[in-house]
Amino acid sequence: MDNSQQYVILQRIPTAQEYHDLRKAANLTPPPLEAAAKALANSFACFTAYERIHMQDDTTPGLDQHPVGMGRLLGDGALFLQLCDVAVHPDHQGKSIGKRIMQSLVDHIDEHAPQAYVSMVAEPIGQKLYPRFGFEDVKPSIGMFRCAWIQNNPDFKAMREAKAAAMLRNN
Question: What range does the domain containing 27 cover?
Answer without folding.
Answer: 3-139
